[in-house]
């Protein structure tokens, strides 16, 4: 049975509504029994069946932010697109709240594909996915698994498994640092069990400390200002549960990425603090691979990590559209 969700019907996105696109709220259930909430965008005028896209991210955001902007933009360009909230977040179901799981999150993308294929106005042979930030990593992991997906766009990617185990720029890639993190996380489990709740880590730091690094300034400028703030966004508010990272450091994504036969484009700003993650993921994907002809890495000169959240003059939507249309056939 589907969970009963409370869905906001009025427009509450952080971007303006397009007059070229129809919009409605939809729900669907994943294989773990969690009901997901999504915004569906489709062009107002079209003929025949549409190519379709499932969009999610950034990690800790909601569908009213970046993923919705991407989905609406792609609907203007002739796709049916859904932007969904992952399990345990936003308007989607699942308890406890504000937790994450790679297994469940990959299933979220796969269940979004299930839903798209079920629609009468969708061409089931023309299905793609778009993942942004940490959900770029989840999208790439899903592409390793789901052969129904014909094209994947990975934008301003974070490899959250690498960050959890190694720290930024692999600065904590040693046994002592991982052990200390495990001690802290397990102490937090004790506290959470005693208190009967899951303590939250806090979202983006506010106010910014003096001399905050560029990437924190970028996050603050998006999540903590009218540009991108949303009341249901974890990053805009109280953040993930602290102990959600417990298993992440023992997981590594993309193990079979060089076996992906479908098309993949990885897009990254060359000034992003996360650039190395996207570039390394691409290099890993094409190393010793027989399927490199439909793989592409696009570096955006001068763009930072959060520029590709919503700066339409920097997000290469024309390239994304062409790549998808060339490969969804």
How many individual helices? 9
Q: What overall form do the CA principal axes indicate?
A: globular
Strand order of the largest sheet: 1-2-4-3-5-6-7-8
Query: Would you identify the regions where 5 or more consecutive residues have pLDDT less than 50?
Result: none
Structural Rg: 19 Å
CATH structural class of the domain at 21-159 and 253-327: Alpha Beta
Describe the structure.
Helices cover 32% and strands 18% of the residues. The protein has nine helices and eight strands. It has helices at 66-76, 102-118, 134-145, 160-166, 175-195, 214-223, 275-286, 307-310, 317-327; strands at residues 21-29, 35-43, 50-56, 80-84, 122-132, 151-155, 263-269, 295-300. The protein is globular, with a radius of gyration of 19 Å. 44% of the residues are buried.
Provide the fold topology:
Blueprint: E1 21-29, E2 35-43, E3 50-56, H1 66-76, E4 80-84, H2 102-118, E5 122-132, H3 134-145, E6 151-155, H4 160-166, H5 175-195, H6 214-223, E7 263-269, H7 275-286, E8 295-300, H8 307-310, H9 317-327
Parallel strand pairs: 3-4, 3-5, 5-6, 6-7, 7-8
Antiparallel strand pairs: 1-2, 2-4
